[in-house]
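This part of the workshop introduces the protein records we will be handling. Getting from the letters to the tokens is the skill we practise here. An example says more than a description, so a record of this kind follows:
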Amino acid sequence: MTYAGSAEPPFGHVDRVLAIAAHPDDVDFKAGGTIAQWTAAGTEVTYLVLTDGAAGGEDPAVPRAELAAVREAEQRAAADAVGAKEVVFLGLPDGELTADLELRREITRVIRRVRPQRALIQSPEINWDFLPDVHPDHRAAGEAALAALYPDARNPRAYPELLLAEGLRPCVVPEIWVMTSPRPDTWVDITDVFDRKLAALRAHTSQTAHRANLADDIRSRLRGQAAAGGLADGRMAEAFQVIRTEPAAQPVERTR
């Protein structure tokens, strides 16, 4: 993989990644190419989708329950396109996400089960440069995921029922990669896997079939991000803010 930026690239291989997002398609739009490269290198990637996506359809005549089922199937197909191992759905109402303790506990449960060494999350901050990133569900997902990663998942006193009743031990996640951050510091060159990212996006038929210029729009945005990261003209990149929750020399857990 090719990295650019100030976050001390390249990053080492990890065994497991957990990608946490509000809606079906969020991860694929922001990180599908990066995930395709990670899975090609042998990393197991799990998606955790918090809402049912039932407020995202173009046709208001489609019942919410029907659209939710469609979007779940689309997300599974998209995850297959980039090689993700598993998709977990919480099924919360689209458009009503709140970063409360209940949501933090549910995210913590998945973190402790998957035991990732790297997490992908949405930004809890507003990115005014791109309006679609300002969706309140995205920010709530980012806030809840960040709190679940630090301190909840690693704190044995947080949600003791997860340990006592379910045997889910505390888990430290050394890296957090923030999608849609207003301050990216790491760019991943995805030019060579763009077709896989595009296949994942096209799997979200209910969200992208009406976009005749989807491929060109995505290329344009990715080329702009690559230019911002200092990559060569014509390359395409996904952008992240990378946070290390442990010192760089901290050993990474590689056993379940």
The beta strands are 2-5, 16-21, 44-51, 86-92, 118-122, 175-179, 186-189, 237-244. The chain is about 35% helix and 20% strand. The mean pLDDT is 92. The longest strand covers residues 44-51.
